[in-house]
Amino acid sequence: MKQIPVLIFLSLVISLCNLTQKLTGNKNDNSNSNQATANSNSKGGGDLPPADKPEPTAAQTAALEGGQQVSWDQQGITWMLPAKWSEVSKSTKDSFNWKSPGSGDAAFIIASISAMGGDFPTDVSLKAFYDQAVTRQKNGEVSEVHWLELDGVRGVEFLETPPEAKDGIRRLQWITYRKYAGQSQMVNLILSTEGQYFDKHKDELFAILYSTKLVH
C-alpha cells in the first residue's frame, strides 16, 4: 500500500508526457528535426549541458559485493542487485519491480517504460523534468538534482528530501529517453524506501542506480 504514491507519481509523469505529445503531435514540419533530437539525446548529445558520470563511493561499491545481475529482458536493461533482493511481480514490457528483504523497512526498485511518438521532443521534455526538479529543490522537496549519464545515456537524477512522516516514501529517481526496438521511449527508474529507513539502504540504492546498463 505504501507504494501507492509511487504509482500516482508515475501516472502524473505519463499524463504530462501524453499532454506534451498531443500539443506537439500536429507539428509535422518539425518531425524530422525532433527525430534527430531524440537520436542525439539517446547518445548523450544535443544542446543539453554536460552530464555527470557515476563515481561510486567505497561503501556503495561494497553494497553490491556478492550481488546478482538481474535483467529486464523485454527492455534490454540490467542492474546489479544485492544477493537477497527478489522479484515483487513478474516483469512485463512496461514495468519491472524488485525489492530487498523485509516488509515496512524494505527498499524497492521500480522501473517503467512509456512509448512516445516518433516526433516527441525528448530534449525539451528532459529539460522540463530537470527544471521541475530544480523548482522542487527550491521548495525543499528535493535535496539534490543532477544531469547524470548512465551507460552513455543522459538523464535527470534527483533525490527527494526526507518526508515529514517517518513511514512516508523517499525516492531516488532517474528519468531519460532512448531509442529502442523502433520506439522512442521514456525510461523512469525509481529506487525507494520509507523515509525512516532510507539511510539504511542509501548506499545500495545509489549503487544499483549507477549499475544501470541499457541498450540504446
Question: Which key terms come to mind for this protein?
Answer:
disordered N terminus; single chain; alpha+beta; three-stranded antiparallel beta sheet; Protein Transport Mog1p, Chain A; 10 strands
Integer tally of domains: 1
The percent range for strand residues is 25-35%
The CATH superfamily title:
Mog1/PsbP, alpha/beta/alpha sandwich
CA-CA gap between termini: 34 Å
Could you give the order of strands across the largest sheet?
3-4-5-9-8-7-6
What can you see in these coordinates?
This protein is α+β, with helices and mostly antiparallel strands and 216 residues long. It has helices spanning 4-24, 31-42, 58-63, 122-138, 198-210; strands at residues 68-72, 77-81, 86-89, 95-99, 107-116, 142-150, 153-160, 169-180, 183-194, 213-214. It has five helices and ten strands. A hairpin with a 4-residue loop joins strand 1 (68-72) and strand 2 (77-81).
